[in-house]
Each structure stands twice: as C-alpha cells, then as structure tokens.
Amino acid sequence: MFVLLTAAFCFMGQKDSPQTPPSSLEIRPPARIAVIEVPNLSRDKWEDLKKQESQMARAYTEELFKERGFVIVADSEVDASVTSQHIDLKDEEQWTKPHFFSIGHQTNASVVIFIAIRQTRSKTVGNILLKRAAGEAQIESWCLDVSKKRAVLDDIAKKGEKLAPPAGNTGLRLGAVRKAVEASFESLLKEFPKLGGTQK
Amino acid sequence: MCLLATILVLGFQKQQSIGVFPIVEKTGERDPAFSQKLTSESRSYLIKKLEKCYSVVNTEIIDKSLAAEKFDGSDRDNWTTPNLLRLGKRMHLDKAVFAVIGESFNGSSDTFFSIGGGATGTAVVRIWYLDMQANKPIIKGLRFEGKSSSGAFGEYTGSKGRIFRAVQIALDKAFDENLKSSTKGSE
Question: I need a labelling partner for B137 at 20 to 30 A (CA). Which of A74, A127, A134, B167 fits?
C-alpha cells in the first residue's frame, strides 16, 4: 500500500493529450523563431499569478529553443507585429493560422510559436490517509513553419502536473505550466541537442 | 380536417429551423470509440433539448451540407463566428449551434468511508449559438462547465461515464436560460 502511494507521489511527469502526433520541424538552427505573447484564460482570480504564468511560459519556450541554437526574435518585435496587425489575442477567434503566419512574415521568422494557457489549478492528490498538494496546468500550442506554410503543431493540448515537495507547496502552478510547455515541445526538440555551453 | 391542416401548416411555417453541427471533441482523449460516443450522444441530447423550441434539421442533411462546404470542425481556424454564420446562411437555417468539448477531467470525491468510491466527471464545452436572421451570435464561443457525480453510458461507468452527464450539464447551463424566452413556433 505504502509502496503504491509512494510511487504515485513520485510521478511528477506530464499527462499527454495526444491529438495529432507532432511531425518534425524541418527548419534547423540558427533559424529565427518568434514566440507570441501567451494569453492566460485560466479562471484563476489572481491576476498577478496569471501574468507570471504567461511570462514564464513565453520565456521558458524561448529558452528551450535558444539553448538549441535557434535565434529568438525579440519579444518587442513580435508584440509590435501583433499590435500593428490589430490582432487581439484575448479573442480566441483570432487564434488562427493565417494570423500566426502573418506575424511570422512580418518579423522575418522561420517558425512561429503560439501558446495559450487554458487552465491552471491547485489540487490535492492522494487519499484520505495521505494527501499532497499539486499544481495542474493545461495549455494549447501551435508551432508553424512559416516558409512551408505548414503547421507542425496545430492546437495541441497538453497537461502538466507538479507535485509539492515535502517541504512546501509554493510555485506549483508555475511548475505545472513549465511541465506542460516541456510536454508540448518534447518530441519536436528531440532531434535538436542542446548546445554544449548551455547543457545542464 | 381542413382547418386542422391549416393550423398545422401555419404552426409549422412559424417554427424556426435550427441546425446542430457535429460536436467536436478536443480534450485529447486517447480512446477514439469513447470520443465518438461522447460526441454523438451529446449531439442527440442537444437535439432533444432544442426540439422543444425549434424545428431541428436532420443531422444527415447538416453533415452533408457541411461536407459540401468542406467544413472541418476539428480545425480551430474554422471556429469563428463569421465563418459559422456564413455556413448557417448557406444552409438557409434560422439558427445554428456548434459545440466543442474542450476539457474533461476525471476525479473522485473521496470521503472517509468511501475512498475511491465517489467518481466525478467534469467537462467544459465551448458553444456558438447563432442567429442567422439577426446575423449575430446569441452565444459567441463561451465556455460552460458541467460537473457530475452520477451518470454512465454503455460500458463507460465510473468517472469516465460521468463525463457524459457532465457534458449534458454544461449544455443545460448554456441553453436553459437562452431557451426560456423561446417557445415552439416563435422567438
């Protein structure tokens, strides 16, 4: 019983939600990648935390590609393109591939990435005898090859889960978003090893 | 007899038509059979609900028309109000509904006496409810959440079976209020 519970608690991974298996990215480093601002649609009331989750998701996605030799288009340049095209990212009906491609063209990026945080929440896992806090995040992601005008990832939903360490339960939702981002790009980035200097 | 026929015809003429587009499941469900049953069962439930107020167009006609328009419900680029209004007009519908089951969670509400016994299902359904005559949405892609601790469908019992009922609850939330003002034959 105890072994089973321990095994369950040790599970810190991601819950996959595979829709279409991601195809490979044909573009190689040092291609330019534009990561669009991350809207957060979580029903959470803490606006500050939602903002942190969005910023972290964008920064972490950029880090994942940067450490593999891709060139990241400056956030300010991407944001300016979104504004100049009057794209309102809070309106889900504007999350369309034609919009993302046009951002890619305008920023001269080979690849455009868009992530939306669908939901983050805290929950308790375990049972009546042994409970532990956990954060859960669900995100949707797109990865578009601008030159080939093709979606490598097209509205793929992934879940991330972060269990609290025994000592505390801070940053669980942020940790869960991080896990969900990793899960989204995991198979895509497999073929791109980290550059020597940045390898952890 | 003639009077009755006239009343029926007039009644029928006043009744507005509604098309229920195929429901899309985008929760990342791994089991395609479950996904198919969930969407078809939810569509049937929604049709039964709307039949109280509208003349619901046969689903085969809707599906064929959408196929002719090359409408792919699984492609999010198609989930826009202008596009859905355009399709509804092309099909000469008065009203149309498009729904996407976007999130679903299995869970349990354990108590001290029933560990693992209180299976629950949660579903979030995104809905477009469109008025082609007014050329505007009544519900524009809003999310409705349903939670259920009861219900099952076929072989799907436990928390997975609860998701069927959770979707129905989400549909009830979306339409019960909006249909209150609608009576059969007039809106």
Answer: B167
